[in-house]
Write a structure and sequence with these properties.
Blueprint (H helix, E strand, L loop, with lengths): L10 H14 L12 H8 L3 H13 L3 E4 L3 E4 L9 H8 L2 H25 L2 H19 L7 H18 L3 H9 L1 H15 L4 H19 L3 H34 L5
Antiparallel strand pairs: 1-2
């Protein structure tokens, strides 16, 4: 009996696989515009018709979005697990803020651990740039830097650690939460800084130690430092909330006649 012939794999399928890998590993980010067809075909060493066929397949799968006369983009919906209405609910709920810190505690410790083990030279460059942004914000007096700027720098530093982990699931989970993470950091800063200037300095020291542990390849230390940092944030915020509750109770007490 003659065995059926195997169907030859199309070149466009290989291109699809390569682009999917770039999206999965985070090289191509949600919302990012792809290079022009001619440039991309040259980079892949393929013909433009084969490339065009691959792009059409990816558009059909919802991974890419083609805009007439505007180019081809990675779908912004990739990893968008938390949308604006839910973001608002989570952002304004104190219990949800605590839940997010607990979730970050679990997630970011693993990111730091794997980043210390796996970071490449380009990863280290991006991480250093993100850390320098944190340092720059800290060097400016509180009145000369906004909470939004400090929150963005902090969040991008933690995102750079996730990128350096080379774990696609960790990275895309962090990215899907990034907007919530950034808003949460800004909220946390607002709750922590009134507790004293030493809080701001302590956070900077913690970020510095975490950065150095990852750059030195000390994986266990990196995970421990990440956990210690988030526990500190939880403790300071809990103390701030307790202070608010004490003040509210005091204000409700009537002065003696």
């Amino acid at each position: 009996m003659k065995a059926p012939s195997l169907q030859q794999r199309r070149l466009s399928d290989d291109i699809v696989e390569r682009i999917e890998t770039l999206i999965l590993e985070g090289t191509l980010k949600p919302g990012e515009r792809l290079p022009a067809e001619r440039t991309l075909a040259e980079e892949f060493g393929v013909s433009r018709p084969s490339l065009r066929e691959a792009l059409q397949k990816l558009v059909a799968r919802g991974l890419l979005l083609s805009r007439q006369g505007g180019g081809t983009f990675v779908s912004a919906e990739i990893g968008s697990s938390f949308r604006d209405p839910l973001l608002a609910l989570l952002e304004n709920n104190p219990e949800a803020q605590r839940d997010l810190l607990e979730f970050r505690h679990t997630l970011e410790g693993s990111c730091a651990y794997y980043a210390a083990l796996r970071a490449t030279a380009p990863d280290r460059e991006r991480l250093t740039a993100a850390f320098d942004r944190v340092v720059d914000c800290h060097a400016r007096p509180p009145g000369k830097v906004t909470r939004a700027e400090e929150g963005a720098a902090d969040a991008h530093f933690h995102l750079a650690i996730a990128e350096a982990s080379h774990n696609a699931v960790l990275l895309h989970t962090i990215r899907s939460l990034f907007q919530l993470l950034e808003r949460s950091v800004v909220t946390n800063i607002g709750g922590m800084y009134p507790q004293g200037s030493d809080v701001r300095d302590a956070l900077m020291d913690q970020h510095r130690e975490l950065y150095r542990a990852i750059m030195d390849g000390r994986a266990d230390d990196a995970r421990a430092l990440s956990s210690r940092h988030l526990l500190y944030v939880q403790d300071v915020l809990a103390e701030a909330q307790d202070a608010v509750r004490r003040a509210e109770r005091a204000s409700r007490r009537r002065a003696p006649a």
